[in-house]
Design the sequence.
């Protein structure tokens, strides 16, 4: 069995007592995600059949463990796709963001931001 960076989160996840199967979650993360890749909590929610709140709480445990970092991505309300631009904080988001897919301008993009996680 190969080593997984996600294994460091197991004791923290068990301590939080989330409604998840820690071993299944760590196995899934280890199998599907490598350093530099993006993790969307909605994908975890669908793939692992866990609650969306549990998915976010689980990822925040991974942030605390230094496994992933939190970022923001803007969802275009016109074409229903992500704009492809990542931000570290809400303060980094400009007042308007152009969508690379439909060329519309997303006004108040912070209202369309979702949290995503980058594997370190």
Sequence:
């Amino acid at each position: 069995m190969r080593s997984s960076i996600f294994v460091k989160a197991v004791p923290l996840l068990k301590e939080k007592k989330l409604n998840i199967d820690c071993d299944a979650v760590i196995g899934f993360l280890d199998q599907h995600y490598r350093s530099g890749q993006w993790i969307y909590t909605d994908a975890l929610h669908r793939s692992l059949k866990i609650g969306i709140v549990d998915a976010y709480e689980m990822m925040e445990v991974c942030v605390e463990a230094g496994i992933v970092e939190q970022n923001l991505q803007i969802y275009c309300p016109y074409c229903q796709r992500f704009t492809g631009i990542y931000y570290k904080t809400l303060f980094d988001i400009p007042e308007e963001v152009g969508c690379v897919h439909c060329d519309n301008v997303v006004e108040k993009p912070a209202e369309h931001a979702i949290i995503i996680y980058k594997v370190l």
Remarks:
- The first strand starts at residue 38 and ends at 39.
- DSSP finds four helices and six strands in the chain.
- The chain has a mean pLDDT of 92.
- The radius of gyration is 16 Å.
